[in-house]
Amino acid sequence: MSKQTYRVCFCFRRRFRLAVAEAPDEIRGFFNRYSENGLMSADHLRRFLVEVQKQENATLEDAQAAINSLQELKHLNILHHHRGQSLNLETFFKYLFGDINPPIDLKVQQDMTAPLSHYFIYTGHNSYLTGNQLSSDCSDVPIIQALQRGVRVIELDIWPNSNKDGIEVLHGRTLTTPVELIKCLRSIKEHAFTASDYPVVITLEDHLTPDLQAKVAEMVTQTFGDILFCPDSDCLKEFPSPESLKKRIIISTKPPKEYMSAAVPKDAQEGDSQNGKTASDEEAWGKEVPHLEEETEEDEDDDEEDPDEGVNRFQKSLAPEYRRLIAIHAGKPKGGMDECLKVDPEKVRRLSLSEQQLEKVAEDRGTDIVRFTQRNILRVYPKGTRITSSNYNPLIGWMHGAQMVAFNMQGFGRSLWLMHGMFKSNGGCGYVKKPDFLLKSGPNNEVFDPRATLPVKTTLKVRIYMGEGWYYDFRHTHFDQYSPPDFYTRVGIAGVPADVVMKKTKTIEDNWIPVWNEEFEFQLTVPELALLRLEVHEYDMSEKDDFGGQTVLPVSEIQSGIRAVPLHDREGKKYNNVKLLVHFDFV
């Protein structure tokens, strides 16, 4: 065992033993139970996969493939040379702690043939901004980055350029620097399907005159060509499915607000950005996700969408070639929330509400929202005072069936980690099938009530065995100048209010490979919407605790058994080596 030296002062040094990752006692117990004479054959491993990992359909071929995948480790002398077919304890431990043993399935596995309204869709807000909402640059780079992560809805605010003869993308009435629309469109075409084959929706916040709309129509048509989805009729009776729209681009917009009689400046609609609270990510790892009941502020009524005085009246001002491109019609009909949430059996549409508007309406009309989202699309967007590009708790949207919970993807923080976690589901394709209870009505036409008190449906047990990888991914003085780090893990649930909880392990001092071996139980009333949160921090007695990695996993997709859980940095990028060894069990 090697040692590591820390310089405390000019003449004094501290030396610490550098531990090597070893199988915890419980892992040794499993190995002894499923091996013979210190060797685990393919048949032994198959039994382990079925009985412990709960992979009921695991075959002998699956077990053999897992063993074969470890052949590359032979040079480390950890694969037992018994015809190359058996694992010893060390190799079995490496298998469990390796990339081939992930906590969730990495393939698309849900039914993709239902209408778009039956899915949560990975949605960006002001997708072109590189930083804050007031003065950052507009660019195609954050659009590319979002698409590469799997985001399926890109928002562009389109405005006339200074000469009124071209189109730019920028956040209106701010100091943001513009980017040409054509550059954004070309980047979308190039990168739309690098992470997922399922459709990309472009939502346009349109501030153009009809002649410039005609130019947009020409740009869009020439850029996307045959991959652009143009519906046969002016209004769809039902949305098509993600499967039928694979590798297609969809346009969604509403009538242009600049030329409506009821037009309200966007900055006035969203509230004075200099007043009220701003949710900044001031902590080292991001502000804690607020409870849903804490987010409502009664003093604002921000409205990014217009209170359209009769959508059809303003559709006439659209350039006809532009109007033909619109597959998902958006807008707020006249008549207040009663009309907004009315379900028309003859056509479907998109409605947008700010996070605050949704919370306010949900107080007494939660079931109306759920009923609306069974056929129509609801988009939720951040309130106007989030000038630092922070985000809100996405569960407020998901628990009401909102498909497009729009987030500022360029920032970081715990709310965005929840978004990343939700869309790890279904192979990371950007579309997650909504739970059946959000899609179906009862015999008396009743629907899911987000405010109802429900019984516990399942219990998730999480045993945090250990972690490793920080020694390779961080400088040895990153966490502490004078000693190895003191790690602890926070583990908890984000979900409906009744399920939300956070707990933590003890702190393991002076160790790059902490072994906690602690179990936590989480009773879940709505496991279909629950997200498991895992965060590692380094305890610091004199200063703020340091960030050591995080991940969020959709509970509905967690695979039972012992799994290697990779951790990510603040921005959601996976570390090369940092991971936790965790045992999951549902009872």
UniProtKB/TrEMBL annotation:
<keyword id="KW-1003">Cell membrane</keyword>
<dbReference type="Pfam" id="PF00388">
    <property type="entry name" value="PI-PLC-X"/>
</dbReference>
<dbReference type="InterPro" id="IPR017946">
    <property type="entry name" value="PLC-like_Pdiesterase_TIM-brl"/>
</dbReference>
<keyword id="KW-0807">Transducer</keyword>
<dbReference type="InterPro" id="IPR000008">
    <property type="entry name" value="C2_dom"/>
</dbReference>
<dbReference type="InterPro" id="IPR035892">
    <property type="entry name" value="C2_domain_sf"/>
</dbReference>
<protein>
    <recommendedName>
        <fullName>Phosphoinositide phospholipase C</fullName>
        <ecNumber>3.1.4.11</ecNumber>
    </recommendedName>
</protein>
<dbReference type="GO" id="GO:0051209">
    <property type="term" value="P:release of sequestered calcium ion into cytosol"/>
</dbReference>
<dbReference type="InterPro" id="IPR000909">
    <property type="entry name" value="PLipase_C_PInositol-sp_X_dom"/>
</dbReference>
<keyword id="KW-0443">Lipid metabolism</keyword>
<dbReference type="GO" id="GO:0005886">
    <property type="term" value="C:plasma membrane"/>
</dbReference>
<feature type="compositionally biased region" description="Basic and acidic residues">
    <location>
        <begin position="284"/>
        <end position="293"/>
    </location>
</feature>
<dbReference type="InterPro" id="IPR001711">
    <property type="entry name" value="PLipase_C_Pinositol-sp_Y"/>
</dbReference>
<feature type="domain" description="PI-PLC Y-box">
    <location>
        <begin position="352"/>
        <end position="438"/>
    </location>
</feature>
<dbReference type="GO" id="GO:0004435">
    <property type="term" value="F:phosphatidylinositol-4,5-bisphosphate phospholipase C activity"/>
</dbReference>
<feature type="domain" description="C2">
    <location>
        <begin position="440"/>
        <end position="569"/>
    </location>
</feature>
<dbReference type="InterPro" id="IPR001192">
    <property type="entry name" value="PI-PLC_fam"/>
</dbReference>
<dbReference type="GO" id="GO:0048015">
    <property type="term" value="P:phosphatidylinositol-mediated signaling"/>
</dbReference>
<keyword id="KW-0472">Membrane</keyword>
<feature type="compositionally biased region" description="Acidic residues">
    <location>
        <begin position="294"/>
        <end position="309"/>
    </location>
</feature>
<feature type="region of interest" description="Disordered">
    <location>
        <begin position="258"/>
        <end position="311"/>
    </location>
</feature>
<dbReference type="Pfam" id="PF00387">
    <property type="entry name" value="PI-PLC-Y"/>
</dbReference>
<dbReference type="Pfam" id="PF00168">
    <property type="entry name" value="C2"/>
</dbReference>
<dbReference type="GO" id="GO:0016042">
    <property type="term" value="P:lipid catabolic process"/>
</dbReference>
<dbReference type="InterPro" id="IPR011992">
    <property type="entry name" value="EF-hand-dom_pair"/>
</dbReference>
<dbReference type="GO" id="GO:0006950">
    <property type="term" value="P:response to stress"/>
</dbReference>
<keyword id="KW-0378">Hydrolase</keyword>
<keyword id="KW-0442">Lipid degradation</keyword>
